[in-house]
């Protein structure tokens, strides 16, 4: 039988890998956005997006832009593909993080 520590470690590694894939894809989306849509890049604070002084309200604007699929009316197919990939990876990474958090409580409650 698998131990609880091994299960948590495996889920943690999978969650970290998926979050790093999401952040990497988000960085490439911002690079593509800088070239194909400079106005949107400014609106989401692309230059300071990952800095400690980043404007959270502008970052949330990008989240809502991707969540509501407003990119489907964009003229650049590469940009649209990156937005789709960011959206899918966000869903995947957040799902794995939720699964990891739930599994922590399950392992602690069951004493595995």
Automatic annotation (TrEMBL):
The keyword Transmembrane helix is assigned to this record: yes
A UniProt-annotated Pfam family: UspB
Keyword Transmembrane helix: yes
Transmembrane segments: 6-24, 89-110
Family per record: Belongs to the universal stress protein B family.
Protein name as catalogued: Universal stress protein B
Cellular localization per UniProt: Cell inner membrane
Annotated source species: Photobacterium aphoticum
Broad class of where this protein is predominantly found: membrane
Topology versus the membrane: Multi-pass membrane protein
One Gene Ontology cellular component annotation held by this UniProt entry: plasma membrane
NCBIfam families: PRK04960.1
Entry keyword set: Cell inner membrane, Cell membrane, Membrane, Transmembrane, Transmembrane helix
Superkingdom of origin organism: Bacteria
């Amino acid at each position: 039988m698998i131990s609880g520590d091994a299960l948590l470690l495996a889920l943690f590694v999978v969650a970290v890998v998926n979050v790093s894939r999401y952040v990497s894809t988000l960085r490439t989306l911002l690079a593509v956005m800088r070239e194909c849509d400079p106005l949107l890049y400014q609106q989401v604070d692309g230059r300071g997006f990952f800095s400690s002084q980043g404007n959270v309200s502008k970052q949330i604007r990008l989240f809502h832009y991707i969540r509501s699929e407003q990119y489907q009316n964009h003229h650049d197919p590469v940009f649209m593909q990156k937005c789709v990939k960011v959206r899918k990876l966000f869903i995947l990474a957040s799902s794995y993080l939720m699964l990891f958090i739930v599994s922590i409580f399950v392992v602690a409650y069951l004493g595995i």
